[in-house]
Design a protein that fits this description.
single chain, alpha/beta, Rossmann fold, 2 domains, five-stranded parallel sheet, two-stranded antiparallel sheet, 9 helices, 7 strands, 12% strand, binds magnesium ion
């Protein structure tokens, strides 16, 4: 378990994961929240557009006036501003809250592991609670493998990780090969731009399929019910 920053470690402890219960570690953006459509409308209001040519943000955000591609630091600023202004108001992915509630009732403990800026943590927690997903939130920076491995070790039983970002699956499988990895991209147009990474164990197309895959990964009989 490598180099977890103290701030992350404190949040992991506070998540209250219990030993001996199945664990779901879920990303937020593009799994629980419709990130891309919100971000695209945010940048369009500021004179930019997203050109949908690949899964990455870098290279795909352009100035509307002349088509100039924004560089990484400009995109980072847009993201900071986006989360500062909108983290509380990104619409949830349909079906996510209901599926998580069924899984929770079946005994699954749920932790949301998200790479938003630290300043957006309370807004994210509030938005989750307001949308029927009152689960602990851990704000992570960079690779998710070390934090996911820490949580899975604490749970000590079956664990499953859900994320849209291929790099996060690489990182989690490297850090904790025993965690089942499900690749999920809520926005269909975005999903069409990215293949399932070889590190992932499945690629459900929608929340009903994702719920079944999570339940199966955790050894529950069916759909969390
Ligand atoms: Mg995401």
């Amino acid at each position: 378990m490598t180099r977890l920053p103290a701030a992350t470690l404190a949040q992991l402890e506070a998540a209250g994961v219990q030993s001996g219960r199945p664990l779901l570690i879920s990303d937020a953006d593009e799994v629980l929240f419709r990130f891309v459509e919100s971000f695209v409308s945010h940048i369009e209001e500021r004179g930019h557009f997203f050109d949908w040519s690949s899964f990455r943000l870098t290279g795909n955000v352009r100035r509307t006036a002349d088509g100039t591609v924004l560089d990484q630091s400009q995109i980072f600023s847009l993201l900071q501003q986006f989360f500062a202004e909108r983290a509380e108001h990104i619409p949830p992915v349909p079906g996510a809250a209901e599926a998580l509630a069924r899984l929770a009732r079946a005994g699954v403990q749920i932790v949301v592991l998200t790479n938003v800026p630290a300043a957006a943590r309370d807004a994210r927690r509030l938005a989750l609670a307001r949308n029927g997903m009152p689960y602990p939130v851990v704000v992570n920076t960079g690779d998710k493998g070390p934090a996911a491995a820490w949580l899975a070790t604490r749970a000590g039983g079956p664990a499953v990780f859900v994320d849209d970002g291929p790099n996060n699956h690489v990182s989690v499988k490297q850090a904790a090969p025993g965690i089942a990895c499900l690749h999920f991209v809520a926005t269909e147009r975005l999903a069409g731009l990215v293949d399932m990474p070889p590190e992932a164990d499945g690629r459900p197309a929608d929340w009903p399929a994702l719920e079944r895959a999570i339940a199966a990964s955790l050894g529950l009989t069916c759909g969390g019910t």
